[in-house]
Amino acid sequence: MLQGHQTWVFKAEPVIRSSAAVGGPFESKGALAGDFDILHEDVWLGQDSCEKAEKKMLEQACEKAIDKAGMKKEDVQFFLSGDLMNQIISSSFAARTLGVPYLGLFGACSSSMEGLALAALIVNSKAGENTLAAASSHNVAVEKQFRYPSEYGSQKPPTAQWTVTGAGAALLSLNGEGPRVTSATIGRVIDMGLSDPFNMGTAMAPAAVDTIQAHFRDLKREPNYYDLIATGDLGRIGHKIAGDLLDKHGIKIPPAIFTDCGILIYKEDQPVMAGGSGCGCSATVTYGHFLNRMRKGELKRILIVATGALMSPLSYQQKETIPCIAHAVSIEM
Amino acid sequence: MLQGHQTWVFKAEPVIRSSAAVGGPFESKGALAGDFDILHEDVWLGQDSCEKAEKKMLEQACEKAIDKAGMKKEDVQFFLSGDLMNQIISSSFAARTLGVPYLGLFGACSSSMEGLALAALIVNSKAGENTLAAASSHNVAVEKQFRYPSEYGSQKPPTAQWTVTGAGAALLSLNGEGPRVTSATIGRVIDMGLSDPFNMGTAMAPAAVDTIQAHFRDLKREPNYYDLIATGDLGRIGHKIAGDLLDKHGIKIPPAIFTDCGILIYKEDQPVMAGGSGCGCSATVTYGHFLNRMRKGELKRILIVATGALMSPLSYQQKETIPCIAHAVSIEM
Nearest-CA neighbor of A66 among A58, A56, A76, A54? Predict the structure, then answer.
């Protein structure tokens, strides 16, 4: 690999043998409800805490993906997962249930593509066959931890985003049929000095732009190589800013192919401020909606640029700004 | 790779070009003080919070390792790091300073070897050259987050461990001279139903045993292949239990080569209860002490089995037991 490059090219093109998406009640009323494998009417999933509900959802996404591939847990060689909870308990407790060799990740909302990139690296280098990548978030759990318990009913500015209650999983193998993971661009941390936790999209936009630039530079590729380029969860405000910044840097992505998972997931009339967010946003939209469209033949080549805000409530209280990152993964039919 | 195997064999044998260890005042009075590159008399490192002190320490370990390899930040292609803080802020904020493509990890105290394993995979598969793996912990920051602020002076049982204030980093390349990373065994989550956060060593011991068993099974290797087998931070109580469990499973590791980073790092007369712990424990003891011994020719083949307790204060409050994991990495001269 060339010095200075940050993109992995997967020559063996690991196949996404199966994928699954699980969502909550708000997602079941959303624009992409038809692309979820399981939708829950009860945001608690019958559990006695929202954290346990998130874990349950993540387990269901993993089990569904394994089941759809016609496999059993024992067939999965490695499990990579990340989420937003302190000490990523959703992932680690789901890993306990799965009982599969496990690598815990944290890249905030970019964890989805961090996991897919590393899973593809493992399969591509023959370090493992049947590798499962997953990510999740839960609206109530995240609001309680990062902002206020949702029961407080605190108001939010229009720049805020709605954390997706959802989990997504993808099972990768060297052999089989399905969309193929062809490359991954690992992002750098970018911090433009913003510190408002109610305006994550704006903070994350420059990180998305940095990674998209690196992707096209490393691969000597033009945006029109793709049928669709989707940022993870910038929302309406952040996505607009990312588009403007890319334009300034001379990267012209046609508006028709440039979208954002956080904009797509909910309907216009849902009160989600600037759009959806959370690890579960890019995970469910990619592993549900986009892969379904690829399997139907509607999309041939897509680039998912999952963005993450790497702050904690404590770093915010200590007046730190928000370091952001984005990892991009290309998937081709 | 064979189905059911959880061990990666690195045929290209990535070289640890350089490594560095940074410690605090308590470590400077410890048994391995001579193996640290930087020791701080001030546990705050002149920062206004213990979290910022941890970040600073991690940055110093990374910078020192890069410097010792005769490189610059720009020469590092990927940075992998993990720590115990919520949302691994120490790692992510250090990644902001480094400005290198970054993969955030969380495996609690196993993060050190999780990072080394993945860095070796990246270098071995030529997905990157000059890859930096690091991990850190800070006594004051960890006590405040997981138990009580140390200023409270709360008493602890003899099974408790002392979180190491330290950071370690290792720089891997395909070429160069130095100890080589030859294999890595990725652990499964093991939970024997223990829930006492003041007795982590006992909770983690079965995970260490499970990974050690898998390592020898996958590689068809006997313990005497190694000059030294070190668990991460089981401490005196957990290490004894691990030895007994291995014995029961028919794996006889000679006591002379079986040790624990948490036992080695402090002196007998330091009030550390059962021993040291934290990501910084296995990271500093491995990247400082053990690698120094290898470079001096005292050790030829070592196996580091870093253990992690994947709980959070919240999972404990919700009466969950402690899921544990261990990742093992072999290093040979």
Answer: A76
Query: Domain residues of chain B, as ranges?
Result: 7-173, 180-332
Strands (E), chain B: 7-9, 15-23, 38-39, 78-83, 102-105, 131-137, 162-163, 166-173, 180-185, 228-231, 258-260, 276-277, 301-309, 324-332
| End-to-end CA gap in chain A | 25
Chain A residue whose CA is closest to B183 = A127
Tell the residue number behind the tokens 């990974």, with chain if given.
B211
Which of A78, A101, A106 is opposite residue B106, by nearest beta carbon?
A: A106
Mean pLDDT for B141-164 is 90
Domain B180-332 matching CATH 3.40.1190.10: the answer reads: no
Distance separating the N- and C-terminal Cα atoms of chain B:
25
Mean pLDDT over each residue of chain A, to the nearest integer: 96
**B89 and A1: CB-CB below 8 Å?**
no
A81, A92, A213, A325: best mutation site toward chain B, by most B Cβ within 10 Å?
A92
Give SS3 for B261: helix
b/e per residue A206-232 (b: at least 16 CB within 10 A): bbbbbbbbbbbebbeeebeebbbbbbb
Given this model, what pLDDT does residue A3 score?
63
Of A3, A49, A104, the CB nearest to B105: A104
Q: How many whole angstroms separate alpha carbon A5 and alpha carbon A17?
A: 29
CATH superfamily placement of domain A8-173: Stage V sporulation protein AD (3.40.47.40)
Does the distance separating the beta carbons of B86 and A87 come in below 8 Å? yes
Higher pLDDT, B197 or A118: A118
pLDDT at residue A151, rounded to an integer:
86
- The closest CB to that of B318, out of A51, A128, A313, belongs to A51
> For residue A183, what are the β-bridge partners?
A9, A330
Q: If you average pLDDT over residues A225-252, what whole number do you get?
A: 97
Radius of gyration of chain B (CA): 18
Q: Please indicate if any CB of chain B lies within 8 Å of the CB of A187.
A: yes
Mutation target to probe the B interface, by most B beta carbons within 10 A, among A76, A87, A210 is: A87
pTM of the model: 0.98
Could you read off the pLDDT of B273-329 as tens digits, one per residue? Answer: 999 999 999 999 999 999 999 999 999 999 999 999 999 999 999 999 999 999 999
What string of DSSP letters covers B11-55?
TT--EEEEEEEEE-HHHHTSTTGGG-SEE-SSTTTT-SSHHHHHH
Which residues of chain A are within 8 Å of residue B104 when distances are taken between CB atoms? Answer: 105-107, 114, 310, 325
Which class does domain A181-332 fall in? alpha beta
Topology of domain B7-173 in CATH is Peroxisomal Thiolase; Chain A, domain 1 (3.40.47)
CB contact under 8 A, A105 and B104: yes
Average pLDDT over residues A62-79: 97
CA distance B212 to B318: 31
